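User: Predict the structure for this protein chain, please.
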Amino acid sequence: MNTQPEIYLSHPHPCDYLPGCRAQTLFLPPDTELDIVRYSALVANGFRRSGRLVYRPHCPDCQACVPVRVPVDRFRPNRSQRRCWRKNRDLIVTARPAEFRREHYALYRRYLEARHGDGNMADSSPGDYTNFLLCDWCDTRFYEFRHGETLLAVAVVDVLEDSLSAVYTFFDPAQSERGLGTYAILWQIAAARRMGLRWLYLGYWIAQCGKMAYKNCFQPLEYFQGNRWHNRFPP
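Assistant: Here is the predicted structure, written as structure tokens:
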């Protein structure tokens, strides 16, 4: 296996996050065979996956998409996060294999319809769902959050060499008072610490995008710019 995978640059396309902007993406061909060691190194350099597709934004006139990660040993929850943690102590979390489950998919569809009903994911089929979340060369786990027998949330997480990578979390939109999205991240930080891992990767943060504002609440946060990680967002 080649140690240096081939990386391509996409043609310009409309940005999914900033209306009116054009975006370009660095990506590995979807048939590239990776393993956890190589993927961990790519994630540490700002890459992320969607299904088998490993990519990183690479826009010539914009650096708005900033990879971020939480150093789990230094993380200290704020007052609101501590309150969220206490509110959800009655939930039971169980790891499930990375596979299609009809109960998960039904929750995923309810979540998308409530939170992203105007987006291109809203009509995701079972095939779209598995192509987005599953990857045969990655150690992926579906963490179920249940209250009794009721499924409230699922956090899809990749286990890397020295970290966890939060792939996607979806939850019951009728349970907004619980703050399930926040709790899922707090739980993943605690899980990474228990596993002796160093970071939780949260994907991309965009300061101008309201839907991503929550990521900057998990401090201290490290930001990847100029091909290195910073302890604070560079000016």
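The CA atoms of residues 139 and 159 lie 6 Å apart.
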